[in-house]
Design a protein that fits this description.
The complex is a heterodimer of chains A (about 290) and B (about 250). Chain A is α/β, with parallel strands linked by helices. Helix content of chain A is about 30%, strand content about 30%. Chain A is built from 10 helices and 14 strands. A 6-stranded mixed sheet of chain A has the order 6-7-8-3-9-10, sandwiched between helices. In chain A, β7, α6 and β8 form a beta-alpha-beta unit. With about 250 residues, chain B is mostly helical. Classes of the chains: A alpha/beta (about 290), B mainly alpha (about 250). Chains A and B meet through α2 and α3 of A and α1 and α6 of B.
Chain lengths: ~290, ~250
């Protein structure tokens, strides 16, 4: 598999002493690659060093063979970026905004703009002002400006946060289609379901450290056969349970508490086995047991 | 260069499409008419109102200050807004240089200010010409109008646009608003006299006396005219220079 992104020992320290990234290394090939982590894990900082907004304090990143620090312009012509927060220009129409971004990428072809708007299902709203769009539509316009010119690498930071289920499904379809034909989509998110649906490979960041990098299947294998559901009567039992085992999630109903746990040593024979999910693996990861 | 022109074009388009632009233009025009329209009352109050050159001089030196104050607010947010909305981060990921982005914003703002000021002056002059109860010829209006464009509208547009766009990129925008309000207030409070005007006046410095000068104060201090011109053009360029030199404004190249 061709490597499109190489991240080598990347560290990022801010002037206030905060280490946002600490010696991160992994590679990304074609397809959709997930970057998971809690808020503050360093995902956005890593995205920003990848797309050349922030210089790393140490280490190198190569995009399609080009060094982000020494060959910045070569990198920038090969990436499309959708930031986490992008308000765009409210007074411009959808067409004008995407055309503006296209021109700044050196694309002076209105047909290309129409084509990309059609792909994101926004062509019929081309004349509408950005301020008149819903959140999901704005996000689609954001993706349109990122994919115009069909860059080899697409970096999307939390693209589905705050979207309704229908928009999220639409977005996943968009990203999945884009990643065909050898392109790479780097998807940064804290929504595990998105990664599960789209990504064969992923990396997990925790407090600036790389906790895991590899396939979703291998990550899930770590928890396969060990996830169980235990019924509890009250909160006191839950507190006791948390001292003995990793609790992955809890749900409450009128019968009590259902705790989803990692029972690695079969301490709870009364618990019911459950099918392990990527979310279980991720939460377990955040508990600190899986190493990269 | 083409990318810079794209920034200029879209900056200009966005600003010209704002309702606030036309609201400020309308308000300034109405105020100007109340002050300067050649009605009997105004003709009685203003000795030289029957001279087109005086009318244009007065519109530029007094009434345009209101317009420019309003435009200053619309221009000041261009860089801070890009930072707040994430657009600046997006621009930095493109194969675009810092100077293309900055100059595009500044020149787009200059074109916008110049256009609005020209429209304002043209509107006022046209209505003066149409409404005047005395005979005036078209050249009598056009000549001072063209003079005003070169000696006042152009340097003033440069000063107002470059300062309003560049300074909030260097300092907190709230501090900029306070400084601008104080400066504009000082300009508005200044009363014309026979002496050389201070160089720091925006629209009522001695440059504007090249359009019309009081017949009893016909001596024009060339040094003062030059100083006013240098202040207007030079300040704008100085603040651009400071902005270019500001570290951490753009990604490290």
């Amino acid at each position: 598999m061709h490597t499109n992104i190489e991240i080598n020992h990347i560290t990022k320290k801010y002037k206030n002493g905060v280490t946002a990234l600490d010696d991160i290394s992994f590679t990304v090939g074609s397809g959709v690659f997930g970057l998971l982590g809690h808020n503050g894990a360093g995902k956005t900082t890593l995205m920003k060093t990848l797309v050349t907004i922030l210089p790393p304090s140490a280490g190198t990143i190569r995009i399609c063979g080009y060094d982000t620090q020494k060959q910045g312009n070569e990198v920038r012509t090969r990436i499309g970026y959708l930031p986490q927060e992008l308000a765009m220009y409210p007074s411009l129409s959808v067409f004008d905004f995407v055309n503006y971004m296209a021109e700044l990428k050196g694309i002076r072809n209105k047909e290309a703009v129409r084509e990309v708007l059609e792909q994101v299902e926004m062509l019929e709203y081309a004349k509408r002002k950005i301020r008149e769009l819903s959140g999901g539509m704005k996000r689609r316009v954001g993706i349109a400006q990122a994919i115009i010119g069909y860059p080899q690498i697409l970096v999307v930071d939390e693209p589905t946060a705050g979207l309704d289920p229908e928009e999220r499904v639409r977005f996943r379809g968009l990203l999945s289609r884009y990643a065909r034909e050898g392109r790479t989509v780097l998807l940064s998110t804290h929504i595990v379901e998105d990664v599960f649906q789209l990504c064969e490979e992923l990396a997990v960041l925790r407090k600036g450290h790389l906790f895991y990098a590899g396939t979703s299947a291998a990550l899930m294998k770590q928890v396969k056969g060990k996830v169980k559901i235990l019924h509890l009567e009250d909160e006191r039992q839950l507190i006791d349970l948390q001292k003995k085992s990793i609790v992955l999630s809890t749900t409450y109903d009128r019968h009590g508490i259902h705790a989803r746990i990692m029972d690695e040593n079969a301490l709870f024979p009364q618990a019911t086995s459950a099918m392990a999910t990527l979310e279980d693996a991720y939460v377990y990861c955040m508990g600190g047991k899986i190493h990269a | 260069m083409r990318k810079m022109f794209s920034v200029i074009y879209y900056e200009y388009k966005m600003q010209m499409k704002r309702l606030a632009t036309w609201g400020i233009l309308l308000a300034a025009t109405i105020l100007s008419f109340l002050d300067n329209l050649p009605t009997a009352r105004n003709l009685n109050r203003l000795e030289f109102l029957n001279e087109p050159a005086y009318f244009i001089y007065r519109v530029i030196s007094l009434d345009s200050l209101v317009l420019l104050f309003g435009l200053m607010f619309l221009l000041a947010e261009r860089f801070p807004l890009d930072s707040k909305t994430g657009m600046k981060s997006l621009f930095m990921t493109l194969a675009m240089q810092k100077w293309q982005y900055m100059l595009g914003k500044l020149l787009g703002g200059l074109l916008y200010t110049f256009s609005v000021l020209c429209i304002f002056l043209a509107l006022c002059t046209t209505i003066y010409f149409a409404a005047a109860p005395f005979a005036i010829s078209l050249p009598e209006c056009i000549i001072p109008f063209v003079k005003a464009i070169f000696v006042s509208v152009l340097p003033v547009s440069l000063f107002v646009s470059f300062c309003s766009i560049a300074l909030p990129g260097i300092m907190d925008i709230r501090l900029f608003y306070i400084l601008a309000a104080v400066f504009w207030g000082a300009n508005a409070a200044y009363v014309d006299s026979a002496d050389a005007n201070p160089f720091y006046l925006i629209t009522s410095g001695d440059l504007v006396h090249l359009i019309w000068i009081h017949p009893e104060w016909s001596y024009l201090d060339k040094g003062s005219v030059l100083a006013n011109g240098i202040f207007l053009m030079g300040s704008g360029l100085l603040f651009i220079g400071l902005l270019f030199l500001k570290p951490q404004f753009w990604r490290s190249e």
